[in-house]
Amino acid sequence: MQTNVDKKDKNTKLFLHLKKWLEKAVLDYSMIEEGDRILIGVSGGADSLALLDLLDSKMIFVPDFSFIAVNIDMGFDPTYQAYAVLEKYFQDNHYPYVMEKTDIGLKSHSDFNKKNPCFLCSRLRRKRIFEIADEKGCNKIAFAHHRDDIIETLLINMFYGREISTMMPNQSIFGGKLHIIRPLAYLQEELVKKYSSERQFPAVKNDCPTSKISKRVYVKNLLNELERDNKEIRDNIYKAMGHIKMDYLLMQKKI
Ligand code: SF4
Fold first, then answer.
1. Which pLDDT score, from 0 to 100, does residue 164 have?
2. Ligand 1 pocket, 117 CB below 6 A?
3. Is the CB of 118 under 6 A from ligand 1?
4. How far apart are CA 128 and CA 132, in angstroms?
5. From the CB of 55, is ligand 1 less than 6 Å away?
6. Which residue, judged by its Cα, is nearest atom 3 of ligand 1?
7. pTM check: above 0.85
8. Is the C-beta atom of 122 inside 6 A of ligand 1?
9. Between the CA of residue 7 and those of 10, 30, 93, 231, what are the distances in Å?
10. Burial state string for 201-220 with b = 16 or more CB within 10 A and e = fewer than 16
11. Ligand 1 mean position to 224 CA, how many Å?
């Protein structure tokens, strides 16, 4: 496994394609401003390692910013050595980083939690990330949610949340004190994963027992199924989110 990445190998066709669309998303949604300090959430999965790598690239139009990589270990397997490999990767690349071991995953799957594990898990993880952002003086938090996550979230929110909404590429929170940004918002999951695998990033596998049976997995499989008949299905859903005919929706009332 490659941990010390040779930055000279970076300029592949795929890298240039991803970087072009990342920059476009960043500019379209004014995600990054001069002097921003960005906490990059690195779960250790392929997507987050690709995000870290892409944001650590020479940008043409994006203003200068600094960043810190933050990994929250959910504690599913305390003996899991992949986190040591991830830490070495941060060190080899001279990334400033925080790695924190927690019991968030276990707590979310224990009797202590009466709700869906994902609900508590995301809440606790997010809370800790906000605290670290504050401790480290970050005004933005970058998550590795890509175009496919945005599409799936729309369907999850409609199917289970009775609303039409999704993840915003640039979301202001705490009265504008902090922003959540999603620089991969234009990028397809397939290409992000391909890049991660080409670059042999030290991806940490997700040991969460819910990750195989979550609503997201259900919706992903459903979309794969629909895609067999219509290759454009994801693209159509994504474009529909930017083409809303308010006059052809229902009145805003509680139903
Ligand atoms: S799938 Fe597992 S790790 Fe992901 S949010 Fe749900 S409980 Fe947490």
1. 96
2. yes
3. yes
4. 6
5. no
6. 208
7. yes
8. yes
9. 5, 27, 9, 35
10. bbbbeeebebbeeebbeebb
11. 21
For the chain, what is the HEC assignment?
Answer: CCCCCCHHHHCCHHHHHHHHHHHHHHHHCCCCCCCEEEEEECCCCHHHHHHHHHHCCCCCCCCCEEEEEEEEECCCCCCCCHHHHHHHHHHHCCCCEEEEECCHHHHHCCCCCCCCHHHHHHHHHHHHHHHHHHHCCCCEEECCCCHHHHHHHHHHHHHHHCCCCCCCCEEEEHHHCEEEECCCCCCCHHHHHHHHHHCCCCCCCCCCHHHHCCHHHHHHHHHHHHHCCCCCHHHHHHHHCCCCCHHHCCCCCCC
Domains and CATH numbers, the chain: 10-244 (3.40.50.620)
43 lines ligand 1 (CB under 6 A): no
Among residues 166, 145, 169, which one has the least CA distance to residue 43?
A: 145
pLDDT for the residue numbered 3: 40
Tokens of 104: 């968030």
**Which residue's CA is the nearest one to ligand 1's atom 7?**
118
What's the pLDDT score for residue 102?
92
CB atoms under 10 Å from CB of 101, counted, come to: 12
**What is the residue with the minimal CA distance to atom 1 of ligand 1?**
211
Per-block average pLDDT, block size 10, for the chain (255 residues)?
Answer: 49 95 97 98 96 94 95 84 92 97 88 81 94 98 98 97 96 96 98 96 88 91 97 98 95 72
Instruction: Determine the residue type at 142.
Output: A
> Which tokens in the block code for residue 83?
């986190």
What pLDDT sits at residue 94? 97
